[in-house]
Amino acid sequence: MPVLYLKHHNIDRTQWDAVVEQSRQRQVYAMSWYLDVVAPDWDAVVALDASGVYITVMPVPWRSKLGIRYIQQPLFCQQLGIYSLAKTIPEATYIAFVQELYRRFRYVASYNFNTGNQLPAILPPAIKSNQTLTLYLSLEKDYGQLYQGYTRDRKMNLKRAQKAGLTLEESGDIEPIIQFFREETAERIYGGVAAKAYALLRQLYQVLQEKGVARLYYTTDSQGRKNSGCLFIVWGGHIVYIFNAAPQHGRKQNGRTLLIDHLIREYAGQEMVFDFESPDAKEPDILHFYQSFGPEAKPIPALQYNQLPKGVRFIREARMRLVRKLRGLA
C-alpha cells in the first residue's frame, strides 16, 4: 500500500471527497471545500490501492512563519486525522502517516485526529501524544427519551426560556452573532481574537450556505431584541455546534438552551449525532453547560512535537512568556 505526501495542487479532489464521504470517520471538516477555507494550501498524506486509487487520506494544515513550515490545527476545525475506506485502520497505517509528518515538519504546534482514530503507543520519542475530547449526543432515541437525559437544571432553564416568550427564527445573516461574540466573549479569550478570525467565519459561513449545510438561528425577546445566536452544520450524520454567542441580557434568558433543544427536537429519532465541539478543561462552565444535555464524552487523539533548533525554540518560548506577563497571566 503506497503512502504518498501530496502538495496541494496535486490532490485529486474528487477522489479525496469520495474517501471522506464513504469513510466510517466521515466529517465535514475533512471535505476539500471546507479545508480550502480554514487551511488554504493544505497538503495531504494518502494511501493508494494497487490501481492507484485513494483509499486512506489525512489532511495536513500547514502554515509558514519566518520561513519555517509547521502544522497547527485550524480555527473552526476541531478534528482532522485519518479517514479510510477500510473497516478498521491498521496500526501500520497510523505509523506510516505520522512518520510522513515527522519527516517533513520539525514543528507540530497541535494536530487533532478524530474520534474514529486511535494513535498507536509506539511513536517517535519526540512526539507527544495526548487527548482532548468532544461530547456526542446520539439522536436515535425519540425526543421524550432525549429530554429525560437533560439534567434537572437544564430542564428548568429550558422551561424558563419558553416562559420568557422568546421567539426562534432561522436566519441568513451572520453579523449579529459576530457582534455578540465581539462584545461579550472575545475579551475573555487568551491572546484576544484577531480580525481575520471573524473574516474567516464569514467566509466559512458563505461556503456552508452554498453547500446547503448551514443552520443559523437566533432567539428574539419580547422587546424585539435578538438575544442569542447559534450556528450549526448539518452534514454526514452529524450536527456540529460550530459557533454561538449571546449578549449579556440574552445569557440570562437561556436562548441558547432553547436553540439547542430545538435542533435536538427536530432531528430526534434519526441516525444523527449532535456534536457539541466541547472545549477543554480550562472552560469548565461551558463544558458543564454542554454536559447538561446528556451527551457522552468521546476522546480525540492529538499530537505535537518541537524539533526546531534550540535558538528558535528559545525565542518562541521567551515571546510566549512575555505575552503572558503583559496579560497578567505569568
Automatic annotation (TrEMBL):
Transmembrane segments: none annotated. Coiled coil: none annotated. Residues 157-276 form the BioF2-like acetyltransferase domain. InterPro entries: Acyl_CoA_acyltransferase, BioF2-like_GNAT_dom, PG_Glycine_Bridge_Synth. It comes from the Bacteria. This is BioF2-like acetyltransferase domain-containing protein.
